[in-house]
Amino acid sequence: MPERAGVVLIVDDIPENLSLLHDALDESGYTVLVATNGQDALLRARQSAPDVILLDAMMPGIDGFETARRLKADFATQAIPIVFMTGLTETEHVVAAFAAGGADYVTKPIRPQEVLARIAAHLQNARQMRQARSALDAFGQATVAVRASDGKLVWQTPLARQLLNAYFGTERDATPPRLLEWIAAADAARREGREHPTLLVAQGSRRLMSTFHDQTGDDEWLVVLREENDGSAIESLMAAFRLTTREAEVLYWVTQGKTSPDIGTILGSSPRTVNKHLEHIFEKLGVETRTAAANMAMGRMRARPDTAGA
After folding, report:
1. Per-residue pLDDT averaged across 261-283, rounded?
2. Residue 305: CB partners within 8 Å, gap ≥ 6?
3. Cα distances (angstroms) measured from residue 160 to each of 20, 71, 149, 170, 233
4. C-beta separation of 245 from 271 below 8 A
5. Tens digits of residue pLDDT in 6-40
6. 37 Cα distance to chain centroid
7. CA–CA distances in Å: residue 20 to residues 16, 37, 89, 91
8. What Rg value do the Cα atoms of the chain yield, rounded?
9. pTM score, two decimals?
């Protein structure tokens, strides 16, 4: 067992149970935290971010089920696996434990070896998920995981949170209704073998595109958010091909499939002036057609890194 196997928060109001579990976990190399009621458990979990929570189902005050629901409703603690400890083995109580957000349960009287085995399994899964999310965070990926059945936002990267707030005005960790509607429609289309269009939300010169990436569980969808920005694309074309601002603007709108009259209307110029700019663009890019120029420009724009505020 490594020197630090992980951090476990034990929540129980019975001193004998705390002592038994604390000693077993401590001897196995875990760092052990203790809370004797639901309110303290919420505070300790938020402050210390344990790897696993061992939670007594029946406690005075806030019971284990309500404590679990509050933990799962808080973005800071919702990913922590919860293992319920209960002497209630009736089906209704087991169902209640899972409905409240529990990942597993053990029955009382507590058998330390069983608890250790279950904690080890959940700890490994939690670490794998955390590593995957950290990798996405490190590469600046805007990614969210949404549960299709109830629309719950299971987790999101920091960049995704910024984009959701910027485009949908979400102040809490909730899935925007418009994104939920698109997920439901796209999920249905996938099940029927049909293509479903990307969700596009425009905000001035910026656009947010949402696309399905993968299915992470039976009912969870991984959605990638990508922001496109006319201004940053134009700047990248200026730098790549040594274009003037107006030439870069013309080339950008060529990549969007616009005709010379369309571009003239957008930029407040005549089609003749647009065509003059195109002549200079062709010369600088070493091409002879709009299609060739557009292909070169799109290749450059795909290669540029995306940023949340570009």
Report:
1. 92
2. 140
3. 42, 21, 21, 11, 21
4. no
5. 889 999 988 888 889 999 998 988 889 999 999 99
6. 31
7. 6, 17, 21, 27
8. 27
9. 0.47
